Amino acid sequence: MRPPPLILALALAAQPALGQSPRTFEVPGWEGRWYRGNTHTHTTESDGDSAPEHVARWYRDHGYDFLVLSDHNVFTDPAGLPDLATEDFLLIPGEEVTSGFEGRPVHVNGLNIPGVIEPRRAGTLVGTIQANVDAVREVEGVPHINHPNFGWAFGAEVLAKVRDDRLLEIFNGHPGVHNRGGGGIPGLEAVWDDLLSRGKRIYGIAVDDAHHFQGEFAADRANPGRGWVAVRAPRLEPRAIVDALEAGHFYASTGVTLADVVVTPTRIEVHIDPRGDFRYTTEFIGGGGRVLKTTGGNPAIFELDGPTPYVRARVIDSRGDVAWVQPVFVRVGDPGSS
Ligand SMILES: [Zn+2]
Ligand SMILES: [Zn+2]
After folding, report:
1. Domains of the chain (ranges plus CATH)?
2. Ligand 1 midpoint to CA 211 (Å)
3. Alpha-carbon gap, residue 155 to 236, rounded angstroms
4. pLDDT value of position 11
């Protein structure tokens, strides 16, 4: 949608005067279409209740384009499931590298790995997380750090010290992982904003961590279909998908679907794919987790007009489902100067 001339004039008027440092969004160079996937699920190869074939079929039959089977310290090789992988459904090899430190769970997923990774331990909590992130990197896999509030294991202070990680679970569908925090412990969105505000470039993912595909589907069971990502990638191929994830070319969701996200140097547009008579509220969030703008519009539009290190968006529908748009970072200063 083109902005009306009045809005355009106001936007131009908001440009910095001579001598001020201009602020602009770093425009992401994404391409391709959206692919829906889940990067965290279990099978009978560890503590899930269904065989890998059954689990993969569930996702394929429910509109997912890709899946990572991530069993605890077991490599479930997609090559063993040739009947399930098709041109339209990709299995990316993975594992939930499952370690811990002094009773605190340290679980790091390895995506697109060539074989099993042995969990590592170290003398500190930060060291233990780092050692497992490094183990995934050493085989050119992509790490994501799982459910920080599971067992109330660690928060932003610890995560700020970890290096070479780009992906953090901000929503996990398992009923026992405390996504929202409580009793004085921050929820995972607040942890994410804390890290972003410290200058750490990290993207928030939503996952199922599904264990239960049999019997009753209920809130207190770890069923599939609760959290996923939609990745914008040039093709449905493991390297293209994990590279797009690490570049932040995706949104995370518990039920809201987006049609498009458009970023220009001064503007973010979130185009929502509406469902029935549902209504949507979009919040644009900046440094410190501050809500910079709230709108019921579709597309939801944010114009950059003040200091903030990043802007991200959260779209909430009238049922409470959410889509999290990844942060867009703000560059200060004339791109032509040093
Ligand atoms: Zn776990
Ligand atoms: Zn898990």
Report:
1. 23-255 (3.20.20.140)
2. 11
3. 34
4. 46
